[in-house]
Amino acid sequence: MTIFKNRAGLSVLLVLGVMALGSVSAWGNPVKWTLQNVAFLDGGIATGSFVYDASTDTYSSVNITTSGGAVSGATYQFGIGFTGARTFVAVPANSADLTGSRMIQLSFSQLLSAFNSGGTLQIVGGLEGRCTYSNCAGAESFTNQRVLTGSIVGVTDSSTAPMTCTALSYTSGMRAEGTTELIANIVLSCTGGTPTAAGQPVPPADIAVTLNAPITSKVTAANNFTEALLLIDEPNTTLGAIPGQRPLLNCGQSGAPDNGPLGAGVCAIVGTGDPATVYNGAPNGYGSGTTCDGSGGRPNYDSYTCGHPNVFQGKRSNPTTLTFSQVPLDPPGSSIRTLRIRNVRVNAAAFCPSDPYCYANPLIASVSLAGNGFSQTLGGLIPSVPFRTLQTQIVPPSAGSNVAIIRLTEGYQDAWKQKNISFLSGDNSGIRGNQDLENFLLS
Known about the structure:
mainly beta, 31 strands
């Protein structure tokens, strides 16, 4: 099976209700088109089929064979499309440079995208020849290898199960006084669809997160890239289908370069054919079990399309929106694909300054995946200490002692966050880090 992303890009539908755990098809209704009575001027014929999904403008399951003519036959298994799919080109296999590759081109009487339920279309032109450009946008026909007659017949492809995603509900309280409050993780669990075949590019999708509060995640790089991250298949954790066996590999790191035509923060992945290994964190991984080494048609070490990254950095595209651009999104088939968005922070103090409690104004994230979206409630704002004042209790020193104890009470559980750096190390056996402060003990 092969998948090609045409020039229009990938769009994926994902819709969930607020706080709901419902799911919806993400891949539309693919149509399987079968060649009927396709003949060339020299007496050769073309047989086979391909699957076209109008909702994503992608081709898959390409398997077309030519035979019986003056030129020896060939089998074509990688499809190249044009927006709306009126002209279809297939080559034996994908390559970074298709110049000189054999190809077959078929032109139809109408756009495939207008026939979501199938039907019959006439082939009004076509040829078999060789690509004259690296992307096969032009071709040179073999002698007498132009299509004389033929049609294609389409039926809904029942063999391609749609990919569906379910939102896992996470909520948390946020401090109403905070200007960089960490929101709950946004987690999607996806299954279904047809996994990308080994050696074929994983189709990309744009993911955007829009909040009803200003986003204050720290900007860590040029072009507004932030600390917000998209993690795929739970890397570096004990979770997921292969616990503990997916090291972190972020897009742009050595072994997963982001120096392609779409710029920083965008990586490409070549499919492995196994949904469990597409995001395995293998640096310079390329396809199934191979690496980028400059041989056998594979790119050189540390080139674009190398590696299997599983961490993608979000960019703040406006004050309330984060985007993850052109993320390679491989349908998992019967497996589970987990998408986790974390490290998103908001200015809670600016969210509803006239209402310090903000109970009636929950924080809501609207997440769109390639233009289709859902919204999810992520939590409410709660003052970390009632009435924005500290509750204190002072225990005076006992007789003969100069030590007093001051206790500050948080307004709700976990309102105070743990430090991740201790200036004085504790030993977890009674000696606490950061305990001494001007001869007082902080309890």
